[in-house]
Amino acid sequence: MAGPGFFARLFGIRRRVDLSRRYERLHESISGTMSSFYKARDNETGKVVGLKVIDPLKLDPIEKRYKGLGKPGEGEIGKAISGPNVAATLEWGISSEGRPFVVQEFVEGVLLHSLLAAKKPLPPAQRLDLVRQAAEGLATVHKAGFVHRDICPRNYILRPDGRLVLIDFGLAVPDRPVFLQPGNRIGTPNYMAPEVVRRRQADKRLDIFSFGVTAYEICTLDLPWPRGGSGKAALTHDSPPADIRGAWPDIPKPLADAIMACLEAEPSRRPETLEGFLGRIARLEL
């Protein structure tokens, strides 16, 4: 396991922070794959924030794959990504106990995953709006020069005012081939691109595939392939997906075609950018 010095260098921090003094935890922890997340009050500013405390034992095996490559830490990546559909990163560092942490704006609302899991069909206009906002959030990540690598409904929050916000840059890497080499099978299986599960060289179009699955689910409350509970679910993603028109017969053709293009098994057949996707549906109204 990497020592505390490794994470201090990774997160660009010299001073350690006593989290129990600096932040009053207002809500019980929500456990993620590699971290715990708290609603907290910053005792220095009085602001309510989201405090993410990362488990170094789980982070280390991922980060050491990039040893010597100058990979920025999660906090530095988050700080570089700014837009209305992305959660703002406020601070990051190392706790007095040697655990990396990231502080983000606290986004009040409901996980997109929870909204879709309720299986209550959304009005067509809201489906289109959520697809557009999800694309805008991911486009912001790509414009900043990063690949998110875990686009799925669990990483979007819908605020009460209707704004959809992309969260969690724990798996994000710079958009450079050296960080996206074969072998890094990372992401959420039901949304994972074929090149990732088949251990092939990847690029930002792996995010576009995952976005396509998310957009399909927003529109239909279902997935283009059978849902699975293990990594094996992704092994079917290089076979033809179920046509979205079967689940939503009245879907506008430009929207159906744009989403299905994102689900192409061959990355070169997907939209090259999210701007390209958004351009295809720019004139739609529902």
Percentage of residues in strands: 15-25%
Going by CATH, the architecture of the largest domain would be Orthogonal Bundle
CATH topology of the largest domain: Transferase(Phosphotransferase), domain 1
* CATH class category name of the largest domain: Mainly Alpha
The separation of the N and C termini measures 53 Å
Beta strands, count: 12
Domains, number: 2
| Helical residues, percent | 25-40%
Largest sheet features: 7 strands, mixed
Principal-axis shape equals globular
Name the descriptors.
Transferase(Phosphotransferase), domain 1; single chain; 11 helices; three-stranded antiparallel beta sheet; seven-stranded mixed beta sheet; Phosphorylase Kinase, domain 1; 286 residues; globular
Molecular structure report:
- It is globular, with a radius of gyration of 19 Å.
- It has 11 helices and 12 strands.
- Helix 6 packs antiparallel against helix 8.
- It folds into 2 domains: 102 residues, Phosphorylase Kinase, domain 1, CATH 3.30.200.20; 171 residues, Orthogonal Bundle (Transferase(Phosphotransferase), domain 1), CATH 1.10.510.10.
- The termini are far apart.
- It is an alpha+beta fold and 286 residues long.
- About 2% of the residues have low confidence.
- The strands form 3 sheets. Strands 1, 2, 3, 4, 5, 6 and 7 form a 7-stranded mixed beta sheet that branches. A 3-stranded antiparallel beta sheet has the order 8-10-11. It has a two-stranded antiparallel ribbon with strand order 9-12.
